[in-house]
Every structure is written in structure tokens, then in C-alpha cells.
Amino acid sequence: NKIDNIQSSQQAKTEQRIMDQFEMESMIYTQDPIYLKFLNAVSGEKSSEAQLPVFDIKSKYSEMLQAYYEIVVQRMADQLPMLITFYMLKETAQLLSTDMLSILEGANASELLFEDSDVSRRRKHLQSRRNRLTAAQEALSNFI
């Protein structure tokens, strides 16, 4: 099934991107202003960027790790749903629409758009019935 193939392909791609995201998180990195903001929140102190190299003392390690942990958690909370949404919804929809258009190119469009005579007759009957009911409603509203 073509849809299942696209879905499983996108799922594999999504899983790979998520694994890449976890692998990138094993490289300890964050921007200094962001790190400082979280470190100040964790420690309850007010420090500046100039003091960052001074923080490299053992007594601050637990606060430093906690600040970095909070940054990573926030980054993952933002990135993972975005990766899933992008690959499983947006790209899958794009691939499906491309495949559907390629199917239509090979088919005779007039045959696909042709309406069965029974359906056509029923549609015309329902339209005329709706028109009669609308006229009756107008006549009743004018009468009242």
C-alpha cells in the first residue's frame, strides 16, 4: 500500500531525526546568555556574563548542571513535537498530494469526473425539492 509505505518512510525519518537530536544533546552546548539566565534562576543569584569563567568551581557544579539540564529539557520539549509534526504531518501530506497528482496524470480526468446517471437524477430531484421548500417557506413568511 502506497500510503503505508509513505507513512513508514516518514516515521523512520522522524525517528532518525529524533535520534540525531538526542545525539546532538550529548554535545554540551548552550549560548552564554541563555545559560546565565537559567543559572541565575537556579542559584538565586544575579551574575553577569563576565563572571561565567569564575563559576567553574566545584561548589557550583550542581547548580550549573541543573541549569543546563533545564535548558536541554526546554529545547527537547520544543524540538521533538516540531520534528514529529513536520515529518509525520507536513511532509507526509506533501508526498501524498504529489503521489495523488501523479496518479491523476495517467487517468482520464473526464472519466473520473463523470457522474453516474442515478446520482445525477437524485441530485436534480433533491435540488428541485429544495427549491420548492424554499418557495413554500417564503410564502409562509410573507403570509405571517
Q: What's the count of strands? A: 0
Order of helices and strands: HHHHH
Shape: elongated
What is the tally of helical segments? 5
What's the end-to-end separation, in Å? 60 Å
Q: Which consecutive residue ranges, at least 5 long each, have pLDDT under 50? A: none
Oligomer: single chain
Strand content: under 5%
Classification by helices and strands: mainly alpha
Protein name: GED domain-containing protein
Domain GED: 58-144
Pfam families: GED
Keywords:
144 residues, mainly alpha, elongated, GED, GED_dom, GED domain-containing protein
What does this 3D model show about the protein?
It holds the Pfam family GED. It comes from Cirrhinus mrigala. 79% of the residues lie in helices and 0% in strands. The protein has 144 residues and is mainly alpha-helical. The model has no long low-confidence stretch (mean pLDDT 83). It starts with a helix and ends with a helix. The radius of gyration is 31 Å and the shape is elongated.
Short description:
The chain has 144 residues and is mainly alpha-helical. It has helices at residues 2-25, 32-43, 61-106, 109-113, 117-143.
Task: Give the helix/strand layout.
Layout: H1 2-25, H2 32-43, H3 61-106, H4 109-113, H5 117-143
Helix pairs in contact: 1-3, 2-3
